[in-house]
Amino acid sequence: MVHGGVDAVRFEKKKSHLISHLSYLIYIIRFICQNKDIRAISFVGGNKAGEYIFEEGTRNGKRVQSNMGAKNHATILPDADKNSVRLSLSHSLSLSLSLLIRH
Questions:
Q1: pTM for this model (two decimals)
Q2: What is the DSSP letter of 43?
Q3: How far is CA 76 from CA 19, 39, 51, 88, in A?
């Protein structure tokens, strides 16, 4: 639970950043599914996103491989550099889509 003014401000900033980040990911997914130059999509991730990507991709004439129900695991050791871990995990979660682009 978040208490106090400073913690509440930090929480709101993090929440705002997360919403912004998710909105950008949704924009990228829609772009991938609708772009005529992208002919195939390979996705690994959760069911809800996988179903959306499969439906949207196939509706736009793409070959879609959607491996749903996937879990990404990470073990973080006590002596790990926290900033490096945050950055690495953020990048791996942001781009769990792989594309096959053919001209």
A1: 0.56
A2: E
A3: 25, 37, 31, 11
Tally of domains within the chain: 1
Question: 57-91, pLDDT tens digit by residue?
Answer: 999 999 999 888 866 667 888 999 988 888 877 76
Residues 6+ apart with CB under 8 A from 58: 64
Instruction: Tell me which residue range forms the domain holding 63.
Output: 5-101
Measured from the Cβ of residue 57, the count of other Cβ atoms closer than 10 Å reads 23
More confident residue, 9 or 42: 42
Compute the Cα dihedral for 41, 45, 68, 74 and give only its sign.
positive
* Residues β-bridged to residue 99: 41
AA letter at 26: I
